[in-house]
Write a structure and sequence with these properties.
This protein is an alpha+beta fold. It is built from three helices and six strands, in the order βααβββββα. The strands form two sheets. A four-stranded mixed β-sheet has the order 1-4-5-6, with no helix packed on it. It has a two-stranded antiparallel ribbon with strand order 2-3. The longest helix has 13 residues. It is globular. About 5% of the residues have low confidence.
Length: about 140
Amino acid sequence: MKHLEPQRTRIGTGRTRPIAAMLADTGDSDVRSTVMGRIDHCPSGSYSYALERGGETIEPDLPQAISVLEEEDGLAGALWVTGKLPVVRSDGRPLEARNRMTLCRCGHSGNKPLCDGTHRQIGFREKPRPTDQGKAHS
């Protein structure tokens, strides 16, 4: 398996209405289009949709990658894993390989190893990395 270095991806968290609250109104084509667009752009892949009941699930074609999500106001977000990369839990059990998922970085998710957004509630921020300033270079 090749080693992938995480990339940094910035996401916005501003929403007007949760997807779950909009599902009952998807008979309206504007609401349905909004829900589909938000699902397509959701990094976690918690929701999916099909164009017909019982039809094939629509998923974006994503490359195998690992990204660090950075949110508004400097909050540190989850690890975004895409392209059905295999993920093994700390107990040795594999997670279901999915096209996209978000993994907890703050350590406080109630759904570990998956991210549940708790980092927003606790104001989780990434600690600054030590710099090489003041070190002699040869």
